[in-house]
Amino acid sequence: MLTLLTACSAATGSGGDATTVRVGNVCGGINPSTIATDAKTFPSGTKVKKICFDGGAEALQALIGGSIDVFIGSPEHIVSARSKDLPVRGYAALSRRVPYSLVTKADSGIRGVKDLRDKTVAVTSVGSLSDTELLKAAADADIPYKGLKVINGGVGASIVAAIDKGAAAGMVSDPQLTQLVHSGKYRVVWKPDFDYVSLVALANTSWVDKHRALMTDYLRGLTTAEDKSRADRSFAVKALAKEKFAVSPGVLDEATAQAIANTPKGLKIDGGVYRKTIDVLVQTGRIPADRVPDFADAFDFSLLKSS
To answer: Where's the SsuA/THI5-like domain (predicted)?
Structure first.
């Protein structure tokens, strides 16, 4: 019988075993891994332990250090690791849209990104995906990123608290994003409108080589969750109730529908989407153009075929 550990524990795991996949997440969002974990779609005997982090930078360090086996992160973490000759690859693509939007209080007077110059802006953590989005937003608005006072805001209630306590804006993702906008007390200052592989299941290639069957079973659970969610959205909504998001049922349904729409079919992407993602990372200075790994080096979808 499937045993599933869903409690978000500290990032200092005690070590994995042959039947457990320790999965690092920036918790609080919606993606196939979260749905799979909550709906228990993994094959019998496969255990999944979800470990929460405040930001992607911390989770990547945990992956490199071996305290987690899989990290639900972004391609920039693959590029960062491989530029340091660390054998990290993406094994499934979970979203092709960046999840965070810049939110401000309804009465803040902030009308656009240009208005954030010299003001405090909260991201989940500096160096994370939300911070990359802020770099992109600043570049598109033609204002210097260094002209923003960027702080670590965490996720969930903590980043909303940062906005309420004085940050001019903060990076927020669904379902909390939809809930805040529906409340009428907050509004969106900037929303991304570009293709970007924002969430992928990353793992150390050496760990995968030693645990191919376990990784294949983990990926099988993700594809099962994807298929069931596309066939019946209520399947995903019911599973996500276990996350105890502080949102209304209608907001959760709306946010889940958007997350499913943003999920690549079969959890795979092609080189074109990867190239668009890399272009953003180079534009924002996240990675040097001469250190970009080839698509085939960055991703390995072969286990999805067998899952």
So the answer is: 55-223
pTM attached to this predicted model: 0.82
Query: What residue type is 266 in one-letter code?
Result: G
Sign for the CA dihedral angle at 243, 245, 248, 251 comes to negative
Angstrom distances, CA of residue 203 to CA of 31, 87, 99, 148, 301: 17, 8, 21, 33, 12
Beta bridge partners of 70: 23, 203
What is the C-alpha to C-alpha distance for residues 279 and 277, in angstroms, rounded to an integer?
A: 5
Contact (Cβ atoms closer than 8 angstroms) between residue 189 and residue 138: no
What tokens appear for 107 in the block?
């009465």
How many DSSP H helices and E strands does the chain contain?
Answer: 13, 11
Q: Which domains does the chain have, with CATH numbers?
A: 5-98+196-306 (3.40.190.10), 101-193 (3.40.190.10)
Contact 281, 132 (CB under 8 A): yes
Whole-number Cα distances in Å, 247 to 180, 234, 243:
9, 16, 11
Q: What is the pLDDT of residues 13-53, one digit of tens each?
A: 345 567 899 999 988 789 999 999 999 999 999 999 999 98
Which among 83, 148, 54 is positioned nearest to 278, based on CA atoms? 83
> Each residue of 283-294: pLDDT tens digit?
888 888 888 899
